[in-house]
Amino acid sequence: METRNKLGTALVVLAIVLFTVPALFPVQAMLTHDTRDSTFDGQEQLEEQGIEIVNYDNLSERGQELYVQALENGGEYRVSTEQGAPEFDYMTSAEHAQLQGENPEHRPGVIAIERPDNANLPPADEPFNRGPSENDEEYEQHREQVQRYDLMAISKGPPPLGATPQLLRLAATLLAVISFGIGGYLLSSKST
After folding, report:
1. What is the reported pTM?
2. Dihedral of CA 17/20/22/24: which sign?
C-alpha cells in the first residue's frame, strides 16, 4: 500500500510539473514567407491592388535568401522573428485584417518580386500553363508575364499545429493527463 501511494503521489507531482511546461515555455511567433499565391497580372494591375513590386536584385542578401528558400521548400518557409529580412513588413493577422478592412481592394502583406531575366533561381511556384492557349504568341507573352512576377505573402504569427514547438507542448500536456489519471487512480483506489 505504501509503494502504491508513493508511486501515485510521484505521478501526480509529475503531472503538475508537466502542466506548467506550456505556460513556462510559450510558443514564439514565426515569420512566414509564402510564394504559393499565383498571379497573372502585370505591373499596372499589381500596383492597382496595392501590391508593392520589388526587383529581386534590389532585395537584401537575406531577402533573396528567404525568397529562394521559400521556392525550394514547396512555396513556404518559416524563420524565427530575429531571422527576417529588414525590407519585409511582417504583419500579424490582426494588423492584416485591419488594413484589409480599411481598403478591401488592396492586398497588405503581399509583395510581388520581379524576377530578373535569365536568373539562376528555382522556378516560380505559379503554374504558367493555366493561361490562354489560343495562339502561340499570346501564350508566350502570358508565360513570360507569369514567370516575371512572383507573389510572396509575408506574415508574423504562431507556427502551425504540426510544428515541433507545438508538438512538444501537446506531448507534455498529454503525458501530464496520463500521469495525473494513473496517479489519481493509484491514490484513490484501495488494494485488497
Report:
1. 0.68
2. negative
Q: Are the C-beta atoms of residues 161 and 136 closer than 8 Å to each other?
A: no
CA dihedral 12, 18, 23, 27 (to 10 degrees): -160
Q: How far is CA 49 from the centre of its chain?
A: 23
Kindly report the CA angle at 37 between 36 and 41, in degrees rounded to 5? 140
CA distance 149 to 131: 15
59-112 per-position pLDDT tens digit:
899 988 998 888 888 888 899 888 988 888 888 888 877 877 777 666 778 888
Average pLDDT, the chain: 80
Closest CA to 111 of 50, 31, 45, 36: 50
Residue 145 phi/psi, 5-degree rounding, is -60, -45
Please give the backbone phi and psi of residue 31, each rounded to the nearest 5 degrees, phi first: -100, 130
97: CB partners within 8 A, 6+ apart: none
Its sign, for the CA torsion 95, 98, 102, 107, is: positive
